[in-house]
Description:
Largest sheet: 3 strands, antiparallel
Number of helices: 9
Oligomer: single chain
Shape: globular
Low-confidence stretches: 1-52
Radius of gyration: 25 Å
Distance between the termini: 41 Å
Helix content: 55-70%
Structural class: mainly alpha
Amino acid sequence: MSDTATRAVASSKAAPSGSAHVETAQAETAPSGPVTGSDGADTTGAACIGGAESLDDAARAGISDASRQDWDAWQVYFETTALLTARIEERLKHHGCSLMDYQLLLLLYSAPEHRMRMGELAHRLIFSPSRLSYQIGVLGKRGWVERRRVECDGRGFEAVLTAEGLRAFRALRPAHARDVQELFFSALQDDDATRLADLMRRVGGLLG
């Protein structure tokens, strides 16, 4: 590895995470030509990533196209969404309901006639057919949801929100709304919600 590339990596390690000094040091010391690792791979981009332990590590990890700030954002997103989900789940359990229970009830509540084909429901929940059948069974034992054959064509099955399930959802919704307001909406400012929704739609577009 060239002296210039060595200084670039050393500067990125010495600078505080997320600080402007990282970008400045990298810009001033970035190699003018390609840098190769021990295996001959081009690791020029990896030399500008402060989070890499070495150029070879960065190349093997395939992170040469992302900045340190990009990876910091991903880490914050991953950890925060996991924590938020856990907190929401914990609060719903106080009311005898899991987050997946609530989401299933919400989808059926919002669907025409409070019913939805099993395939569509599994797609919306990102569930396998077996997992959805289990979840429907759990709510069925409470009398909240029924699994019925589709009446219009006699093919396939659908999940239907019962009258008891409708009452249960309406009872759960105010407390859940307060929790989301406290744990999520209260942190948003100005047009944060609009920009966040746009970002998530773009990510969703990539995922198909």
